Amino acid sequence: MPEEQTGSITVKIASQEEFEKIHELNHQTFAIEIPQHEKRPDGKLIDVFHEKNTYIVALEGDELVGMICYNPIRPFSLDKKLNNLDEYLPDHRKLVELRLFAVKKDKRKQGIAISMLKVLIPDLIGQGYDLGVISGSVNELELYKNIGSVPFGPLVGTEKALYQPLYFHINNLKGAFKVL
Predict the structure, then answer these.
(1) Which of 15, 23, 37, 128 could form a disulfide with 31 if both were Cys (CB 3.0 to 4.6 A apart)?
(2) Superfamily (CATH H level) for 4-177
(3) d(CA 160, CA 152)
């Protein structure tokens, strides 16, 4: 997988050494900022799919400022939230789920999310994935719309942490980010 350097930000596939920082950003984003999970005294939240995930991270020096992961192994998180997930989706050959799309609050609106997608998308295309699904925070739907995601199905989550299921044609993203 390629590595991308944009100013002081390096985007790359995560190494095992970065997992602790991933768990901390996961807790900060999905337990404190978006109360989807209970706060933990250790400040770390290990994703239930951690062992199946491949993480793409954005680093500023040693600081983890963003992450996204993908998982091609079903059942997906969305399989557990929506009955008959496949009935909502357009025809596809190979499906992948993206999750834990997060950028530290003080680093948002600086292009970090797009930089992570510029590294992620060619990797997914290279592996033959043609359709992706993600649960997008209802507070960030504009970002998802801008990258070509299509909402489907009912909202999932809880009243305090609502998510919109979305799908996107991975090959359609290729031109939007000029990744190849």
Answers:
(1) 37
(2) Gcn5-related N-acetyltransferase (GNAT) (3.40.630.30)
(3) 20
